[in-house]
Design brief:
Belongs to the binding-protein-dependent transport system permease family. The chain has 2 domains: 5-54; 78-244, MetI-like (MetI-like fold), CATH 1.10.3720. It has 14 helices and no strands. The protein has helices at 5-47, 51-54, 67-77, 80-111, 117-126, 136-146, 153-156, 163-176, 179-187, 192-203, 205-221, 224-229, 238-244, 253-288. It is mainly α and 289 residues long.
Length: 289
């Protein structure tokens, strides 16, 4: 008898065990995808029906045929197109601002030497432990003193910099840029701004891009601060426009979900175009961290 036969006999079992692992992984991933996508699908189902259908038992799981009617009703009820434009302006300004300004602050904390650097950075990090709701009243008073209530700059300016963004960019600046490169640039006569803009920022551009997308999505979905500071319908963002769709006494779920789906659609389109780059940026940051 071949002495290798016992080992050969166990080989198929090992191959079967190895093949079971991907199946389990795919099953878990499938469940996670279903849990993540089903709320969006259910929102679309309700947006194509009405409130009675949405609350019926057993629930309807197939889309209806009222989406175009409800979408037109959304545009007739509130200035939704203007709200979309306002959200694009605010979100884009905040995304670009955070990508540049947080990178600039992160560069200063990571690569510049000045008195109180570590103390200031500690204060910045500690601000992340303070709930954002506590800043609403003083922030509103500042906007009132500046005369910015019911203006888009009241949404843009406070969101141009974030403590998380500074921390994020400081970590990337510290791990991606070598001091020898900066010293060589200074020897060549480059100023601090030139070193940041021409050397440091291009090296951390993927991280800045991810941070800008985070800022864009956060600003697009923000409700509390725009709801407090905006008064005129022509200044509404999409989240406030969706709130305006709701009657003070009852809620038309179909109309509200149609507005919510229209507000979510630009984010889905954005993710289709930049989703791969976003994931790559997050993975690169995870490995560098």
């Amino acid at each position: 008898m071949n002495p290798a036969s016992p080992t050969t006999g166990r080989a198929p079992h090992r191959r079967r065990s190895a093949n079971r692992v991907p199946l389990v992984v795919y099953a878990v991933l499938g469940v996670m995808v279903f849990v993540s996508v089903f709320p969006l699908y259910w929102m679309f189902v309700v947006a194509t029906t009405d409130s009675a259908t949405a609350t019926s038992l057993p629930p309807h799981v197939l889309p209806g045929g009222n989406f175009l009617y409800l979408a037109n009703l959304v545009f007739d009820t509130v200035p939704f197109v203007q709200a979309l434009v306002n959200s694009v302006i605010v979100s884009t300004a905040i995304g670009v601002g955070q990508a540049v300004l947080c990178a600039l602050a992160g560069f200063a904390f990571a690569k510049l030497r000045f008195a109180g650097r570590n103390t200031l950075f500690l204060i910045v990090v500690l601000t992340m432990t303070v709930p954002a709701q506590l800043a609403v009243i003083p922030q509103y008073l500042i906007m009132s003193k500046l005369g910015w209530v019911d203006t888009l700059q009241a949404l843009i300016v406070p969101g141009l910099v974030s403590a998380f963004g500074i921390f994020w960019m400081r970590q990337h600046m510290g791990s991606s840029i070598h001091d020898d490169l900066l010293h060589a640039a200074r020897v060549d006569g480059a100023t601090t701004w030139q070193i940041f803009w021409r050397i440091a920022f291009p090296l951390v551009r993927p991280a800045a891009f991810v941070l800008g997308l985070f800022g864009f999505v956060y600003a697009w979905n923000d409700f509390l601060w725009p709801f407090i500071v905006l008064k005129s319908p022509e200044r509404y963002t999409v989240q406030i426009a969706i709130k305006a769709l709701q009657n003070s006494r009852d809620i038309d779920l179909g109309l509200a979900m149609a507005g919510s789906f229209l507000a979510t659609l630009p984010l889905l389109v954005l993710f289709v175009f930049v989703g791969r780059r976003l994931v790559q940026g997050i993975i690169e940051g995870a490995f560098k961290g």
